[in-house]
Amino acid sequence: MLTNHLYPNTIEEVFEYLGEPNSKLLAGGTGLSLEKNLKLETLIDLQNVKLSYIKAEGDYFAIGAMTSAHEIYKYDALPDSLKYAAYSVGDTPIMHAVTIGGNLAKFYNWVDIPPMLWAMDASIVIYNPKETVMSSDEFFAYSRKNNVSARRELIAEIRVPKSVKNSFSEYQTFMTTENEKAQLSLASYFEWDDKGEIGKTHFVLSAAVGFPIRITAIEDKLNGSLLNDIEIDELITMALDDIKLVSSYKSTIEFRKHILGVYIKRTINGLKEKMEVTK
Fold first, then answer.
1. 90 lies in which domain range?
2. Cα 83 to chain center, whole Å?
3. Are strands 23-26 and 167-174 parallel, antiparallel or unpaired?
4. Which pLDDT score, from 0 to 100, does residue 149 have?
5. From 42's CA, which of 141, 184, 239, 273 has a CA 20 to 30 Å away?
6. What confidence tens digit (pLDDT) does each residue in 165-212 have?
């Protein structure tokens, strides 16, 4: 039974309160509707810990874990792909409530912001209570085993690399209605040199799989290649052979395969357009 609602002012106080039995961190609160722990006694509210900010720091943007999806969407200097992922979380009230840290800590396979962060190779700052900075690959491998919220750790900051000149990123998500959970999402990021050779490729698929994954088969195919040498249909076939999609009552596996193929094609065509512009 919930009996305590605590308001720490510092990260140190957060970990003092986490010593309370059956306690849980509270960020935006949207995940509480899905909370199944009937023994929950204490909520540790993070609103006073000063983790809501977006700062330009050298070659990355530092985003505090309590920053809302709406604040990310409205911050002009952030990449459009990340802003669109933030916009996709739901209607305006939901955008104001959902936090970037909460999206990462209590991980559901349909969430929008984390796949784009992974594609962009963001770094995650975690306290347990010692500070640790994890790469996206490390963080998502870590989170596959157990949500951060279940490990009684605190996500404090997300560091998103600033876009370089020869780069392109995109977020696509399929929903049958505007405010439902995604049925399939694809986040992507690319970099290339002045000769047009692709040097970095990230494809992150979510919602249509049990946990977000990188589509390594097509990443490996594109890395070190010239885009004109790539057949899009071949990439789609490689992707479908490399991963196992799951169905839902809203869409079959075959339908999700079709959507994934469409999204890969759109991504590659968008990449071609961007590479032409930056020549």
1. 54-161
2. 11
3. unpaired
4. 66
5. 141
6. 999 999 999 987 776 788 999 999 999 999 999 999 999 999 999 899
**What kind and span of H or E run contains 153?**
none
Quick: pLDDT tens for 2-34. 678 889 999 999 999 888 778 788 787 766 666
* Nearest CA-CA partner of 103 in 12, 1, 19, 185: 185
Q: Both 12 and 62 in a single domain? A: no
Q: How far is CA 167 from CA 89, 199, 217, 223, in A?
A: 25, 10, 20, 13
Statement to judge: residues 175 and 152 lie in one domain: no
Q: How many CA atoms lie within 13 A of 241 on its CB side?
A: 8
3-class DSSP state of 190: strand
Q: What are the percentages of helix, strand and coil residues in the chain, rounded to 5?
A: 40, 25, 35
CATH number of the CATH domain containing 108: 3.30.465.10
Confidence of residue 39 (pLDDT cuts 50, 70, 90): confident
Whether residue 182 contacts residue 114, with contact meaning beta carbons closer than 8 Å, is answered with: no
- With a threshold of 0.70, does the pTM exceed it? yes
Helix (H) or strand (E) holding 258: helix 253-277
Q: How many domains does the chain have?
A: 3
Q: What angle do CA 155, 156, 157 make, to 5 degrees?
A: 105
